[in-house]
Amino acid sequence: MNPHLAPVGVPDPALLPHVQQLCDLTDPYAYGPAEDELFAAAMAEINAWHTERSSFYRSLYEATPAAEGDEPYRTPLVHANFFKRHEVLSVPREDVELHLTSSGTTGQKSQMFFDHWTIRSAQRMVARIFERNGWIAPEQEVNYLLYSYEPAPSLNLGTAFTDNYLCDFAPARSVEYALRNTGGGAGGDHEFDPFGCIAALRRFERDDAPVRILGFPAFLWFTLERMRAMGMPPLRLPEGSLVVLGGGWKGHADRQIGKEELYARVTEQLGIPGERIRDTFGSVEHCIPYIECERHRLHAPVWSRVTIRSTRTLEPLPYGERGYLHLVSPYITSVPAQSVVMGDLASLRPGDACGCGLRTPWFTVHGRAGVSRNRSCAVAAAELMKGMA
Hints:
Blueprint: H1 17-23, H2 33-53, H3 55-63, E1 78-79, H4 82-85, E2 98-101, E3 111-114, H5 116-133, E4 142-149, H6 158-166, E5 172-183, E6 189-192, H7 194-205, E7 211-215, H8 217-229, E8 242-245, H9 259-270, E9 277-283, E10 286-291, E11 298-299, E12 305-309, E13 323-328, E14 339-349, E15 362-368, H10 377-383
Parallel strand pairs: 1-14, 4-5, 4-7, 7-8, 8-9
Antiparallel strand pairs: 2-3, 5-6, 9-10, 11-15, 12-13, 13-14, 14-15
Helix pairs in contact: 1-2, 2-3, 7-8
C-alpha cells in the first residue's frame, strides 16, 4: 500500500466511530444521502468531543441555537481570524505533533496545532485526490520547482509544509525553490529569485523527467513575464509535467490576472496542457484539500461541506449568491476548527452545473472581504515580489 494512504486511527474509537468511518471513505467525491447521514453523525461526535475538551467551544456551542429545519447538525461559527489572536486546544499539548502558522515573518499569524490523527487524516485526503487524478507516481522521478519558501530552521509556515509534502507523491530528481533562504532570523529571510526559476526551467526542458510546479501563482506569473521581457522563446517541458497552484494573489489584487490568462500563458510558454494545470484552495485553519477538477472548479470533497453566508446576517445563501465562505469538516480533533468562516467572498454552485462528472457542489472564490492588516502566507510572499515585475 502507498504509505500516504495507510490507515490512521482516531484518538478514541469509542467516541469517534463515525469520524473514523467518514475519513476512511476512499472516493473523495462520493455523494448521496448515505454520505450526508454519515457526515451529520460525524459532526455530532466532533462537536461533543470539543465541547467536552474546550471551555471556549463549550460556551460557543451552548450559545448557538440547536439545528432547525433542513439543518442536519449544529454549526457554531468561528471566524478564521479568531486563530490569529487565540490558541485553543482540545488535546493535551504533549499530543501536538505539528504546529503551523498562516503568515510570514511579521504580522498576525494563525496558530494551528495538529495531533497525529488530524494531520495524517488531512494528508491522506490529499493523497486520495492525487490518486484519483493519477498524480501519484512512485516509480517516476520528477523535477520540482516550488514557488514556496526554501526550508530554514524553525520555518513552520503552512504553505511551505504543504508544498514539501506534495513532493512525496513522486520521487524527486531535483528540487528548486523560488523563495530562496538568505539567512537571518529563526525562520530565515527569503527572497524571490526569478532568474533562478528561469534557469531551472531551461535545465528541466533538457531533461527527460516530468516537471512539477507547485505553489504561489503570482510567482509563476512573474516568472513568465520575466521570460517574455527577456525575449525567451517558449519552452516545452517534458510530457507528464504538472502545475498545482495555491495561495492566491492577496496583497497584489491590482496586478492579479484571471486564471484563464495564467493557464493559457503556462501552456504557451511552458508547453503544459490546461488539464494538467490546477489551482487549489486551502488554509492552515481548515486543512481539507480543495483541488480543481479538469474544468477548473473547486468541488467540495466528501469529507467537508461548504456554505455561503450573508455578509450582513450570516444566514446561508442560495446557489449563485456571493457571501462569506463557510467550511465545515469533522476531521479535526486537536483544535475546535470544525466550522470556520473564512475572510473570503465566494459563491456556490451545484455539482451538475460543472459538467466534469463530479456531483459534489463547487465554489468560486471572488476575493477577500474588506481590507485587513492581517497577512496570509500569500501576502507575506507577495511583498517579496516588489520591484521584481
